[in-house]
């Protein structure tokens, strides 16, 4: 971990929120001390609110696409920083890898210092009834980021006292075995499960069931099917979550933020100075012919030819996820200085690959654009408020659909197929929303395909491929078409790409990271 990051963490718990109306409001720079703060539930929740939004931006913006979907074969991309994830030539100097690393260790460090401060306050006589849930909230975030760390880098550092490391000047922190990193993540989530409430009056706050759901995901990754099934079932039996009927609506408007399907979301809001606080997927995914003076659009990431071939005929998720020839959005009425364009878009936005470019047409490499998290051309043009690159839509990290599919796969376990009744019921709920017919039995490959299209462009499919093991991952990746509509492209996959390299800058400052991993426990 970089020295300047550690020192930033040291001061993080002094940067608190005293009177936020929304729990994602940016913290104020108060001269906070343990003796005069954390005396109310609002003050403690103001502290933990800082974990929900801004710290995630470096991963959520682009690294999440590059790692979760470009590398997985769901997205095609150009530019300078992302093509290595398409053709597996990633280097330790990658900007995306460094960004992801900095985000996860920053959040891990913040939570460690927050927990220390809250424990000290409790020892001074602070009220445990609201301090303990705050500590549990920190455990949830620390467990979640170490789940990401263990899946992305495999063997990696575990840092629980960054302040002590900074003050000691000892930055010789080793890598620990992946099994220990994931065990640490699990233990953190178990502490979160024990300390979080079953419900929270503030939409978007994590609860006991958020922790159970994340544990189910971790257990599935570990192939601990019994525990994955048990935790998923606890979430299902809570009757607190449902599938949102409008699949597309979850991803094209902030009006469905913190919906009944969301177990954990990165929280966003727009301000007059939105840098880092808004969702920035709109410009990276939106088609260039949708750009206006309110909304930037440069389509850095496109649906891959391979993901387009993965959808079954009639799957309603396709239109909710992908813009293709004939895709329309009547409410969006973008305008620019071109009269022909304005005439073409007069009755609403049309995605057209035949119309002349500039006059409303668009013709990119895969003849398609991503629809998820594209909220449109701006309020003046029939969409919701967009401030340049920024929108107010949350990014969902864990949805109830995932719980249902985790349960189905956990029931299947190590078998290649299942026709077990409860597994089919969970699986077919997801298919029913997509407008597809129910299955009477499901294979492992069918389940993986269902996960692929359900969570397309949500940064998750790489981890589904990875957890199959090297031989199956190689087979899946080398079968993909990673090219364009004009030229199909195949790649060769090597085992060294199962996990990403540790950023070169981190190894320069901590040479221990270049050595073999050791045991943490």
From TrEMBL:
The protein's name: RagB/SusD family nutrient uptake outer membrane protein
Pfam families: SusD_RagB
Similarity comment: Belongs to the SusD family.
Biological classification of the source: Bacteria, Pseudomonadati, Bacteroidota, Chitinophagia, Chitinophagales
Main location: membrane
Classification via InterPro entries: SusD_RagB_dom, TPR-like_helical_dom_sf
Tagged with keyword Repeat: no
PROSITE patterns assigned: PROKAR_LIPOPROTEIN
Source organism: Niastella caeni
Cellular compartment(s): Cell outer membrane
Record's signal peptide: none
Record's keyword terms, sorted: Cell outer membrane, Membrane, Signal
Domain (RagB/SusD): residue spans on this chain: 303-515
A Gene Ontology term for the protein's cellular component: cell outer membrane
